[in-house]
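User: Sequence recovery, please. Input:
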């Protein structure tokens, strides 16, 4: 069942989160390319979150959440589980608060994300995503060491923090958007963004975008109940692989989203190339799914203003070079 309605973050929570993170987070730009506008037949605005601290939007929610822990609890430290971007966000936020952090990461996480997480001073605990449960591991470490568990998406403080991205879009855009497209894993980013966007632009359609085989939110929105992904599914979008939507995030998304869109790995690769060629922006696979949806016509962008969230840029250099150089 969904978490109680009273736990759902509001636009006031997002404004409060924006005030908390203002001194430490980057107000990322809303970018535009004439080439991409011509390609879609409309106006395409890209929220460039690879330029965020730690290279992704995850820093927003992590800092907002850790900032609200009572001081006597906060000082004990935090633990989180993540394939990489939440890991880095929590590690960096913990470092800024001068508290210890333990991050549970899959063994096959991109080497860059593991190295960066350790670089922020966190202890990294690796696990096998196909045979072990990261939530069980994280909960055990929290109990054993007295650490606070910072969930990746199903927490109102996380959702409010991610919603500051949507609030920035509202403040930066010069015309009401017809639609806003954002990547979706567990749903924290798109739910927070939807709350902010719909508060100012109630007629705008907000869509979650996912990779093929990890379309649990799209299927959940169609069925009205949370769906799960095949445990053996695979994708280059390592940051969008939760097994099912969050309870709280799905409750928000079911109410506010216009639907879910799905793109292939090949379409994601092309979107990454276009972001680099046209915007000089390095976008990781999971961060490029919304741009892929716009460029491939998963939703029509012709004669309308579309905002696309590119959510992160933490991709290994070898992988990125291979994608850029592929014919």
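Assistant: Recovered sequence (327 residues):
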């Amino acid at each position: 069942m969904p978490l109680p309605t009273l736990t759902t973050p509001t636009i006031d929570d997002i404004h409060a989160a924006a005030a908390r993170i203002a001194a430490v987070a980057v107000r990322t730009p809303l970018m535009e390319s004439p080439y991409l506008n011509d390609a879609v037949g409309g106006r395409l605005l890209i929220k460039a979150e690879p330029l965020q601290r730690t290279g992704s939007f995850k820093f927003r929610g992590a800092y907002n959440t850790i900032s609200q822990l009572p001081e006597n609890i906060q000082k004990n430290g935090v633990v989180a589980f993540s394939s990489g971007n939440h890991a880095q966000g929590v590690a960096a936020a913990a470092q800024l608060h001068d508290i210890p952090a333990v991050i549970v990461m899959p063994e096959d996480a991109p080497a860059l994300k593991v190295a960066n997480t350790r670089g922020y001073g966190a202890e990294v605990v690796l696990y096998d995503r196909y045979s072990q449960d990261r939530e069980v591991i994280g909960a055990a470490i929290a109990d054993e060491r007295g650490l606070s568990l910072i969930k990746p998406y199903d927490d109102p403080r996380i959702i409010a923090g991610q919603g500051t991205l949507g609030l920035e879009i509202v403040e930066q855009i010069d015309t009401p958007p017809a639609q806003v497209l954002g990547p979706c894993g567990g749903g924290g980013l798109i739910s927070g963004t939807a709350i902010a966007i719909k508060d100012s632009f109630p007629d705008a359609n907000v869509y979650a975008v996912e990779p093929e085989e990890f379309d649990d939110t799209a299927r959940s929105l169609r069925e009205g109940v949370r769906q799960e992904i095949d445990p053996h599914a695979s994708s280059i979008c390592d940051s969008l692989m939760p097994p099912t939507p969050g309870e709280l995030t799905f409750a928000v998304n079911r109410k506010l989203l216009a639907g879910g869109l799905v793109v292939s790995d090949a379409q994601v690769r092309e979107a990454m190339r276009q972001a680099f060629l046209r915007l000089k922006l390095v976008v990781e696979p999971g961060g490029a799914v919304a741009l892929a949806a716009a460029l491939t016509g998963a939703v029509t962008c012709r004669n309308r203003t579309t905002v696309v969230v590119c959510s992160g840029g933490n991709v290994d250099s070898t992988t990125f070079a291979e994608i850029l150089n592929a014919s």
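The beta strands are 30-32, 43-48, 78-81, 101-106, 123-127, 148-149, 179-183, 205-211, 259-263, 305-310.
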